[in-house]
Amino acid sequence: MSNSSTGTGTSSKPRAASSQPSETSPKRKRGVFQKELQHMMYGFRDDPNPLPESVALMEDIVVEYVTELVHKAQEIGS
Predict the structure, then answer these.
(1) Is residue 34 pLDDT above 70, yes or no?
(2) Which of 16, 18, 39, 41 could covalently link to 46 via disulfide, CB atoms 3.0 to 4.6 Å apart?
(3) Among positive and negative, which fits the CA dihedral 6, 15, 31, 66?
(4) CA dihedral 27, 28, 34, 35 (to 10 degrees)
């Protein structure tokens, strides 16, 4: 479901470049949304205790999506 909306953003090359630095950026704290994502994943019928790798992947996807959405909103607003 988010893949289709994320897929539309893949046409812009800055998105792919922005996903790489976000993982190495000192500003980005990993695991900030860990508990919330675990609860959401369980709510969508995942295991009550999902793998940490799965939660980390979901966090990367969510942060990338929200960042892209905010950038698009900023472009529209300016």
Answers:
(1) yes
(2) 41
(3) negative
(4) 30
Lookup: tokens for 59: 């966090």
Q: 58, 41 in Cβ contact below 8 A?
A: yes
- Rounded Cα gap, residues 51 and 42, in angstroms: 12
Give the residue among 26, 13, 6 at the shortest CA–CA distance from 68.
6
- Please tell me the pTM assigned to this model: 0.62
Query: CA 23 → CA 43, 44, 61, 73, distances in Å?
Result: 27, 26, 11, 23
Is residue 33 within 8 Å of residue 78, measured between CB atoms? Answer: no
